[in-house]
Design a protein that fits this description.
Distance between the termini of chain B: 30 Å
Number of strands of chain B: 2
Number of helices of chain B: 10
Structural class of chain B: mainly alpha
Oligomer: heterodimer
Radius of gyration of chain B: 20 Å
Strand content of chain B: under 5%
Largest sheet of chain B: 2 strands, antiparallel
Strand order of the largest sheet of chain B: 1-2
Largest interface: A-B, 37 and 36 residues
Chain lengths: 297, 272
Amino acid sequence: MSTTPAPVTEQPTTPLDPDAAISVRGLVKRYGDRNAVDGLDLDIRRGEIFALLGPNGAGKTTTVEVLEGYRSRDGGQVAVLGVDPAVGGRRWRSDIGIVLQAGAGDSQLTCLELLTAQASYYPAPRDPHEVLELVGLSEKAGARGRSLSGGQRRRLDVALGIVGGPALLFLDEPTTGFDPEARRQFWSLIRSLRELGTTMLLTTHYLDEAEELADRVGVITAGRLVEVAVPAELGGRGTAPAVVSWTEDGRRRTEATQTPTALVADLAARFPGEVPDLAVARPTLEDVYLQMIGQTS
Amino acid sequence: MTAPSTATKLPALARVYRVRAGVELKEFFRQRESVVFTLMFPVILLVVFGAVLDYEIGGGVTFTQYFMAGVIAAGILGASLQNMAIGIATERSDGTLKNLAGTPMPKSAYFVGKIAQVVAVTVATIVILLVVGVVLYGIDLPSGTQWLTFTWVAVLGSAACTLLGIAVSSLAKNGRSASATVTPFALILQFISGVFFRFDQIPEWMQTIAAVFPLKWMAQGLRSVFLPDVLAAQEPAGSWELGRVALVLTAWVAVGLLLCVRTFRWRDKADG
């Protein structure tokens, strides 16, 4: 993991980044005598999708809830859109959208009524009809929240999170419980939001989701951010050897190499036709992630 | 800091208040359970008790006339204390409150919406009870300054019970547990506060307990509206004690407000 030039190596004394969407230095949150967050540093650029990964209890949700202004902190500096969330008022909240893990709760209102009400809290909201269109719920405009399927409800949650026209959107485990098809649809929704210029902080347990959506991922363990990198390079993944495997003389052969192309060319020369069961693999995000959280916890 | 919205004005309070009032009315009146249990329950009580307990309590007055005051007080209790305690506990445990706290909605708007809901449900309950009482049982409606007394007792009582309901909601784990504690509590309170039985016929120690809570005073204040003054002699104190009614209800408003401010939470306890 030392191969990646990670911005987390910044000392807590580095000033907050005024241009960042989110800038955190030395964040500490205590529960009893335990530091749930223990000196966390983080910078999220404007316009990027940042995925925060980490095992349960690592301080992920606590960190996000401090950034969202739901929780107080015990130490460190935090700026979210240039404002300390501890003192962020209505104006600050107007620029932030939050999609909570638990969703928006039961309601007797229709999707359109919920969005229209929510929009009225914001100074420059999006058109609720357009938002319904964007999340693919136009046909459900007149349906009550409780009549929607799980995936539809989650899209309604996102609609509620973005109807205020946020510059920054928090997404807490947005696709938990989705079937693969619903997740694909959800991912394309998130990509269309990125095109609108929305900065997003995503927490997720799905590494394929982080890889698919995130510009950068950060791994949190034991209350600290242990690494920040683009998904392809996390944990030295970009420079890790490739593993080439094939079957020869009835036995499975594997070889780790920095030059898989050369090895495959050799194999191609050695075998008359197809190389039996040829596979070239790089460590997946899941491989390096599991290795990282195994090392630090 | 340079977010686009800094140029635009935040929505006016009055507008957000209107929106929240609309949301709360829809939430209540579209939910069959809340309409049946909160709004129709006292009406059913009036219909049943009016038919069953059809006797005279003296001075040519029927028990139904006496019960009218009690059932209106119980209706106010249901529309305010029970409705708020259960409704807000539910919204706290299902994440509605946490979501609202994450928006720029002014916090006061939530309470304004709830007050609008209580007022609408209370007025609807009272109107239906009065109509049913007059049509089915020939209840004598209040007249003249009695309406004034009716109004201040209803407003003060409903304010006290609304605040208490909001405070009580914070004690419950979720809507279901709020319902499981508040509903029997309200029922017992109704039994000992002179709703179902004449208050002067209830054991004295129960009267003492009832006198701590607002319901007894609401029912007593409303009896002064629905019963002829000669029946004031039947009251344990020998009079309607309207001054004391006002005093106790005002004290509960103060206590309820203090409890609300001290205990209100936008998040579930389980959520840390």
